[in-house]
Amino acid sequence: DTAGSIPEAERTERFAPGEEIHVAVRVEQPSPQARVRIAWFGPNNNLLGEDARPVSGDDEYVHFSIGGSKATDPGEYRAEVWVDDRKVDERRFAVVAATQADESQDNFGGG
To answer: What's the CA angle centered on 17, arms 16 and 21, to 5 degrees?
Structure first.
């Protein structure tokens, strides 16, 4: 939507192998030099990657994504959300067969 959240109809916790996975992190009253960081973990708790972004006073949401060759193996995944050096959230999701991903109506994404 225009505020930057992921529309309700597009939120899910199940993704097809290689599908782009998006997380929108809502930020409220960030400190002047706050940084939001996300750490992506795959099956067996393997770190797949990290990304960090500064937050401006105008940001309501900060967006992150992962996909392509990083999220292809079926299994349970998670994304840890950090503001500065403090863990503030954790989102869990799964990579499943494409037909199973299409059937999911679970929420994911942020709000």
So the answer is: 70
